[in-house]
Amino acid sequence: KKPAAMSADQWAAGLKQIEDQAQGTQFQIALYPGASTLKANPKDPVTCGSAETGFRKTMDQYPDAGLVAAQMAAVSLCQQSATPAKAQQALYYYARAVSLPTGGVGSLEPANQKSLDDYLKRIYTVFHGSDEGLAQLKEVAAKSAKMPDDFKVKTAREIATEVEEEFKTKNPQLATWMGVKGQLADTNGQQYFDSQLKDSDMAGPNGAKLLRGTLMEAKPACRAKELLVAIPLPNAQGTPVAEIMLKLDTPLAGKVETGGDIQFNGVPTAFTKDPFMLTMDTEKAKIDGLTITPCPPPPAKKAAPPAAKKK
Question: Which residues neighbour 293 within 8 Å (Cβ) at sequence distance 6 or greater?
Fold first, then answer.
């Protein structure tokens, strides 16, 4: 009963203090199985897996406790070396821990939640490649203590692979050249050329042309037997530099216009790394996009001056 000398507000505050202590004690009892298991070896994946079982039971009792979500995240991260998929679970529960309210039983202190939020951003950025999607992850995690079965954050490598595949689909000829050039420019570029590229027929499937580039120069300008081709990257600045020399089996019948795009197949026959140049044998029929005009007539020869008369 409330003592007569105590005000109603003092009595209510005292009851709340006792109630909070009781609820805190009950929470610690619920947390104990997982925490005591983890204490034995907090960096061991097997131990962390056993502790996760205990923390899941605590989470069933206290689904909105930030401390439990943080513990679930920590033991999940501990297991990722043995079970890589646990990294996804760690991100989810870190996001939930930093998204739950503070101030209740089993909640995080505001300062601790802020530190955990900063940590989440760092590991998410490393995992995903950027912080894109992190805000949406927090929104999803805040709604449910149970991680959705289809939950997944794409890794930086997965994103890079998707971008690469999309690039190959949209720019197959450029992607092919980038792969070839990358091998040639590498430390073992000459070995790659000698063992895999030299004298091979580089042709596209079903009659298509394998490579595409900008015709920079014809040698000679009229009835050319050599064509210098650059393959610039998208959004490249400055004048493209020729990296492929096409050697024709017969001279072209006229003057070829430079500066336009051509598509071609050929057979690599020589390579130099510095300056970078891949030489390919080809023929006019294996080149699309050539614009050829008649060669200008040779300059008229000046008539010889009449011989001086002898006196």
Answer: 254, 255, 257
